Amino acid sequence: YQWQHTKETRLSKFNQTEIEAMLGSYTKVLFVRDPFQRLIATFLQGMGSNPSFSSFVQDVLDSGTHNTSVAWKPLVSLCRPCLVQYDYVVMFGFQRQELGHLLQRAGLPVDSHLPKFTDTEVLWTYRWLSEQMFSELSVQQKKQLSRFYHWDLAAFPFSSSFLSD
């Protein structure tokens, strides 16, 4: 196929026939994380220039979905789960188990290829951080965030997300 020898990496640069051929020839894996946890991680990594989490969240909300950073943009706008049929969706917190399953399905040795994941070990930390940071937000900000991430919350099983309440 011609697309195998091109430098383009964005699907939008290809026509529908080429896109379908490419997507049909790969195993598609999507890694997802609770949107509120993504916001916290971005804030803690210093990507927000605000002194408080509440101010950072307000900047995210003010930016809207079209002019926002990939770090906190809604997942459905990045990965198009309604258009792309992913073979696997791996949730943060279950990476070791899920990737082991993927390697096994591919016929590869499981333990020799997997790095040490700490996602399951830090879930309790994120729960505590989520409680603390969620309490900093106004009722209006909480409602706006739930609307901002509405489609993510509908598309993926983030049942324990603070934004689903």
From TrEMBL:
InterPro entries per UniProt: Carb_sulfotrans_8-10, Sulfotransferase
Lineage summary: Eukaryota, Metazoa, Chordata, Craniata, Vertebrata
Enzyme class: transferase
Cellular compartment(s): Golgi apparatus membrane
Record GO cellular component, one term: Golgi membrane
UniProt main location, coarse: Golgi
GO biological process: carbohydrate biosynthetic process; dermatan sulfate proteoglycan metabolic process
Protein name: Carbohydrate sulfotransferase
Molecular function per GO: sulfotransferase activity
Membrane topology value: Single-pass type II membrane protein
Pfam family, one: Sulfotransfer_2
Keyword Glycoprotein found: yes
Enzyme Commission code: 2.8.2.-
Organism annotation: Furnarius figulus
Family: Belongs to the sulfotransferase 2 family.
UniProtKB keywords: Carbohydrate metabolism, Glycoprotein, Golgi apparatus, Membrane, Signal-anchor, Transferase, Transmembrane, Transmembrane helix
